[in-house]
């Protein structure tokens, strides 16, 4: 694939490392960025033949087959509309829009233009997520009851993130978009998110947006998702997920505490991992960040889908649903009430009811719990179906 890269900053470089780092068939053929020096530097570093500070020029060149948007949030829509105009396949970083209104406009525009669209939510492509999700799909956890995702770090690396106008929000939008899509994927992307309750505050940073938030998302089948996001967390980038089902549990530690621990006095110390706050003392390096963060598997899915004329796992539609959930979170943080998720476009199931929580033990009883004690006894705790009386039956003394 011949790629136009829009943006040469933090994520543009991560993407370029992933796209061109593994003897890949895919090549960045044009790059656009705001400042001439950084555009030229990116072009030199990644051997990109055409560099420009004119966005449309980078997109419109005939050799470009797909446009990768790695620009600040307020520029996503403008870039998407230019891709529609020039009928170029488009993949865009997260969040899709600053809110669901922008996201809906982008979704409708790409579908009207008939162009391929992919949503670059890398954290549902990490090796650990892919494995965990496969187990969930096979039923190893039973019915998913609660999915929780945390992304916290000491705050982003560029000025525009901290400006509520350009970014569209604070850590809820910046980090919550990952958590919403992770938990939604575990619960089932065809299950409708119904309502959100969210606490948010600006605890530390001198900004207008929130720097810390915790939210709950109720799904139509009774499952609950939880996100914990912060730009005030000290100690690095904490990325953790937990899934609880009727038959099992998964805990995933994606970053920070992955089992790789290193001590250095600081002599010869260098880059350790994204958002690491120190390069001396006890450190938690990450083996292969591009892979651990899902970029390789994400681009593989995007380009395979593009070549096969199919859809990738994550499309603009998913980005739109995420934006709608986060809009409800912002509303709830204001009103301090459960707020409905307003989805003008919904393509999943509707009218799903909560699964029964009643498990029969025999004709007369429901099973509450089986127990084996430390002294070797076995018993079951039961509820009588008619009377409701709770009792225990000793199976072994
Ligand atoms: N894991 C992820 O998926 C991930 C991680 C980081 C950032 N992002 C997303 O990537 C996008 C870009 O973030 P970044 O971290 O690369 O930002 P950055 O500030 O490092 O880079 C932004 C790039 O956009 C260019 N640009 C063009 N017009 C600009 C303008 N008016 N203001 C500022 N920059 C302008 C800059 O020259 C620069 O090349 C954002 O939407 C962000 O949410 C995604």
State the main characteristics.
single chain; 397 residues; alpha/beta; Rossmann fold; Dihydrodipicolinate Reductase, domain 2; seven-stranded mixed sheet; six-stranded parallel sheet; 18 strands; 30% helix; globular; binds nicotinamide-adenine-dinucleotide
Can you give a write-up of this model?
30% of the residues lie in helices and 26% in strands. It has 397 residues and is α/β, with parallel strands linked by helices. It folds into 3 domains: 2-122, NAD(P)-binding Rossmann-like Domain (Rossmann fold), CATH 3.40.50.720; 124-340, Dihydrodipicolinate Reductase, domain 2 (2-Layer Sandwich); 365-396, no CATH class. A hairpin with a 5-residue loop joins strand 16 (365-372) and strand 17 (378-384). 42% of the residues are buried. Bound molecules: nicotinamide-adenine-dinucleotide. The site of nicotinamide-adenine-dinucleotide (NAD) has 22 residues, from helix 1. Nicotinamide-adenine-dinucleotide (NAD) binds at residues 7-12, 33-35, 38, 70-73, 75, 93-94, 120, 122, 158, 160, 174.
Distance between the termini: 68 Å
Query: So, the CATH homologous superfamily of the largest domain?
Result: Dihydrodipicolinate Reductase, domain 2
The assigned structural class equals: alpha/beta
Over the alpha carbons, how many angstroms does the gyration radius reach?
Answer: 24 Å
> Helical amount among residues, as a percent range?
25-40%
The kinds of small molecule bound in this structure are:
nicotinamide-adenine-dinucleotide
Strand proportion, as a percent range, falls in 25-35%
Mean pLDDT: 96
Number of strands: 18
Overall tally of structural domains: 3
**Largest sheet: number of strands, sense, barrel closure:** 7 strands, mixed
**Overall outline:** globular
Uncertain runs: none
Highest-level CATH class of the largest domain: Alpha Beta
Count of runs of 4 or more consecutive helical residues: 12
| Order of helical and strand elements | EHEHEHEHEHEHEHHHEEEEEEEHHHEEEE
